[in-house]
Amino acid sequence: MIATLKGFTQQLVPVNGIKINAVTGGSGPPILLLHGWPETWWEWHKVMPLLADDFSVVAMDLRGAGFSDCPLDGYDKATMARDAHEVMVALGHERYAVCGHDIGGMVALPQAAIHRKAVTHLAVLDVPLPGWTGWEATAARLWHFGFHMSRDLPERLLYGREYDYLSAFMAERFYDHSSFNPADIEIYAKAMALPGRTRGGMEWYRAFAADHAAALEYKKQPLATCAWPRRRPAVRCADGADAQGVRHRCEGRLDRAVQPLCRGRAAG
Questions:
Q1: pLDDT digit string (tens) for 146-203?
Q2: Pairing of strands 96-101, 119-125
Q3: Fewest CB atoms less than 10 Å from the CB: which of 55, 108, 193, 231?
Q4: What are the phi and psi torsion angles at 218 (to 5°)?
Q5: Cα 107 to Cα 111: distance, rounded to the nearest angstrom
């Protein structure tokens, strides 16, 4: 089953030495949507039509996922951020907003730090961030982080069992189980079963040490010191909770989650 969305087109965009699958539609200011694990761009399929009335929407498969290439390396989030930035430039968007969920949030943050003149708005949804307060303790509590970082083991255990693993993994994380659609899980499982994609997704986790070291450098930059102001944070959660279910003060709406990157003052 190849996921398609009415009103949107897919294309392979050559960037950064690989090809990235990008799904585009709508008109207006550009916004880039970055998915998490174990999803593909399809994660956003209910949000994209809502945004398309007001935005030029771009949702892409990260390297190692979906129909994007799955190279042997380049899974540190700075390299993946370069993928994402070059996709937007190739599509004619010199300045754009970025919204990243889960691993996509880990990509969106260095994208804003490295390409600060291009990224006008930033949202990081539901994910602990390498290099930031509590990262080590949080990562140690999440069993799948250690499992996914293990060399070769996940690939061997999950081969042919992609649907079983993903359905169980995602079911335990659904807040509203009425939204659980087996057809969506089938889409993600089939994408994960494509050659190299299980390994590609695991490499996102195996790059965490490099991501942590890089983030420590981002925090020294002016962007990092003003992107988390004391009031109305620029980085927000979509549903008011982080990956561990800790509640935060945020409106819980995508349009309010995407806030301007602050320039030495509180966002908004």
A1: 999 999 999 999 999 999 999 999 888 877 878 778 899 999 999 999 999 999 999 9
A2: parallel
A3: 231
A4: -60, -35
A5: 6
CA distance 71 to 18: 8
pTM exceeds 0.90 for this model: no
d(CA 240, CA 39): 21
Dig out the tokens for 70 from the structure. 């799955």
Q: 95 is written with which tokens?
A: 């300045």
* C-alpha 161 chain-centroid distance: 24
Whether omega before 38 lies within 30 degrees of 0, making that bond cis, reads yes
